[in-house]
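Archive entry: two folds, one per protein. Generate the first.
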Amino acid sequence: MEHDELKKYIHDVPDFPKPGIVFKDIAPLLASAKARTAAVDLLLKEVENLKIDTVVGIESRGFLLGTLLADRLGAKFVMVRKPGKLPGDLERMPYQLEYGYDTLEIQEHAIAKGEKVLIHDDVLATGGTVSAAADLVEKVGGEVVALNFLMELSFLNGRKKIKSHKVLPLIKF
């Protein structure tokens, strides 16, 4: 299955979660073993020549394929979450949303100094969330080698916030 064939497994949901937004629903892709396996295979092909010790998944849809990528890479998996969802000593990173602010957290000792990290999320939109996640990984001592995504919403120009990193989207809209 090719990159563009996977697009038929991503459905547009107009006016969700609020009017004017077209949500990209990946549930059909996740429901299809064939499409899900093809997506993971293609995501892995993009990073096959990189040394990766850790895959970081961004809450929550980044966990879905991120754990599968980590399994196939023989790497550990680390979660980056919204506040109040991780135990222990945490590092925090606030970031700006279109309207307001939010925060991401990571367990302080989840990544050893110098570990090579692949950050995975389902979608690159405005770039704020993944930029904050990359800052968190670097704050705890990891080295971000690439950012990979199931899809990129190119019209939102998210790459501008993360131009210092290798960006590897599977599908572009």
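Generate the second and append.
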Amino acid sequence: MITTLAVENYRSLSRLIVPLERLNVVTGANGTGKSSLYRALRLLADAARGGAVAALAREGGLRSTLWAGAENPAQGAGRSGPVGLRLGFAGDEFGYAVDFGHPIPSGSLFDLDPEIKVEATWAGPVLRPAAVLSERKGPSVRTRTADGDWHRSAGELRPYDSMLSEFADPRLAPDLLRLREHIRSWRFYDHVRTDAGAPARSTATGTRTPVLGHDGGDLAAALQTIMEIGDGKSLETAVDAAFPGSTLSIGSEGGRFELRLHQRGLMRPLGAAELSDGTLRYLLWTAALLTPRPPGLLVLNEPEASLHPELLPPLADLIVTAAPDTQIVVVTHASELAGELERRAIRGGLGVNAVELVKDEYGQTEVAGREGPLDQPPWHWPKR
């Protein structure tokens, strides 16, 4: 489980160190940095798949994503050191950090692509020299082998590749492999489509689907998988709690699956194409949260979108039900959802880590109620 998330120089997140627990709810007014926090987590996940540099490039590169203010806003000072966008996390078992910087000009058309300058992994919640498991500086990597010795690469790592994706060898870097696979298990759901042309509204060829796809096109197969090999009882409860007296079934014709919602008083079931945006979105969240294959981390961005206020309590129940099996981060605008989550979590004996983001007078994102650097988890960045 992640216990600390650290971000530096990413959009309004000049320096943000956030404690995380089993269930986390991130709130704040518009423009306070909630979306940036969500994107920072996604960038960390992209690093494990070798796609962080491309993801930053799609956001406009470092020029667009770097914190635009001074290094020390209170003193009105500029930058004293090399420019870097830093992302990292740590838990009781592992920690990881990456530092992106500008490339050395070479005349290439790719000179605007950010480069990975430094990466490090370590054992435990805080980076210490004795705890380092692997370290990358420029093209060179050293990793601690299974017998405790150090293996050093010949400096062949390319500046746009992460050591997570290139050096996860079970013999030479077993800890790096475990960390990579943990990060690759993370899942993100952000504004899944429910419009008239949404993939979730169409029939699709069905195969066993323990993990709902990001576009929701395999919703019917995912729900049928829950019914057959997952927690079918919780699925029934979730549907009835949101739509009293209703039940779900999945039809199949020629191998193509179709969702059918049976509602009290109707002579026939409704297909996905006939459902309201809110009803379909709730069923998408149900499939994501009741997955038979829980991820190491599940991040939901504004799950309340398109939902009627009456659906927020059953959605909160779903989230709290999933939390014992997976760490969850909910980024939300809805204070009603945050309140429902807190009430239900307390009833279930589960704490909620409420993180309210605000902006200070210099435009930096901060955690509300934090009085100073000592009022946050300890954190150290690897040096270039």
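Annotation attached to the second fold: Residues 195-294 form one domain. The CA atoms of residues 239 and 283 lie 8 Å apart.
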